[in-house]
Amino acid sequence: QLQLVESGGGLVQPGESLRLSCAASGFTLDYYAMGWFRQAPGKEREGVSCISRSGGSTNYADSVKGRFTISRDNAKNTVYLQMSSLTPEDTAVYFCAALLYCSGPTRSWGQGTQVTVSS
Asked: CA 17 to CA 25: how far, in whole Å?
């Protein structure tokens, strides 16, 4: 059974950083591209970033370019999202997902981790 578990969320002040982790079990991570998504209160879920199976290709939403970095460690079956220069607009529940390819269909979702940016 494909399972993804996010961690690393929390409450931070504007300008601070957080690193989210997504640990996979039940499957080998390098079979899939991996994505991070987020959903703010009252808004639809949006794509934040995606990384290819090998890690050689990444993409980002315009709103996070230059501030967020996605990476993966296939040996550890874990994907990361390093977030810096956080703003209140980044407040959301963050989800990771396994995809057949970036922008492709998802195979599994995590349960989400809350990120709150507030002074």
From this structure: 27
Q: What local confidence, expressed as pLDDT, does residue 1 receive?
A: 77
Distances, alpha carbon 45 to alpha carbons 39, 83, 97, in Å: 4, 18, 12
Nearest residue to 114 (alpha-carbon basis) of 36, 46, 40, 60: 40
Taking only the tens place, the pLDDT of each residue in 50-109 is 999 999 999 999 999 999 999 999 999 999 999 999 999 999 999 999 999 998 999 999
Residue with tokens 């492709």: 104
How many whole angstroms separate alpha carbon 97 and alpha carbon 114?
15
H or E element at residue 41: none
35 in Cβ contact with 97 (< 8 Å): yes
